[in-house]
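Name: MFS transporter
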Amino acid sequence: MADTTIIRRPERRGYLRLFSIPGARAFTLGNLIARFPQGMFGISAVIMISGARGSYALAGAVTATGLVANAVVGPWSARLVDRYGQARIAVPATAVSACGSLALLSCVHFGAPDWTLFAAYLASATTPNTGGMSRARWAHLLRDDPDALHTANSFEQAADELCYMLGPVIAAFLCGSLFPEAGTLVSAVLMVTGVLIFAAQRATEPPAHGPARATRSPLRAPGMPPLLICFLATGAVFGSLEVVTVAFADAQGHKTWAGGVLALQAAGSCAAGLVYGALKPAGPAERRHPLCVAAMAVLMTLPLLAAALTGSLYVLGGALLIAGMATAPTMVTGMTLVQRRTPAGRLNEGMTLAVTGLLGGIAAGSASGGAAVEHWGPTAAYAVPVTAAATALLLSLYGCVRAPK
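Structure predicted for MFS transporter:
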């Protein structure tokens, strides 16, 4: 008698489980290509403008204008994505943004008046939140599998860290080894190429909800306001840490090493994100979030101690590597809460609001960190990211108490 035993394949777990989903690898590849320029645009514009005009103040003002414009336009663009679909909105929005980058490049190259740089760079505000769209796809595909969604969110956070870790290095290399406009040009090409690949994967795209399905704003959803303010405080940690570390390296006579030292913080976060995603989450996200923020607040004291007790840039780099390990779990759990608390049909908008809060916090943290360096010196200024992390912890605890039941 023939053997009728059925041989079952072992269930795939972790990241293999994610990328065994049909279409997942294709949209992830396109999204990574589209997202990588996010770490390149700012430094490329600064190098290009400062090199041509001889003014870091002008370069900083132009990039800051683009950041503010993106914070204003981003949630509105995301709302259109929720209503009409990712491909229908992201492709033309990317085309407008790329035209703005090319216009900025042309204005700088041909010596146009300074005001044209601001006008051209404003078009970059239409850059779609590619990370948010990718997370929205995972949320759609894994809506009945919270463990797999946790792994997907962890992967996305690790991808963010990788892009922001390598992007500035690649941009600086292109601008220095080829020509000053190379970073901006390559960034625009990568963004358009990646979005076209991503948008072509229609099988995994979440359904558009249309105007008739629009619900109340995520800003009014229960538990969302304190969570978004927590993202603001978390962004202040990142912004102040960057400025203070550059100032500390400069005081040690090694300003050119600042990028590498900061990359260690991103590397620690990237590694922790991948490990965190491979583990099964223990307990609800509402309980995990304060614990992750508490870990971040504790570990953020390490750079302060390293700077104060040793004054060594090498020791500081090790402290930043360890401190970064709490960043990804905090962001992953925070994004999980955003996905759960955002009203149906507004997911892209909700996640874009979280990113907007993060960017606003980075800007505020940069300003606070710079002011602290001027008044206290770079070593004592490491108290700013510690304070910002402690504030984020208080907000997370408050949000935990006020969380919808």
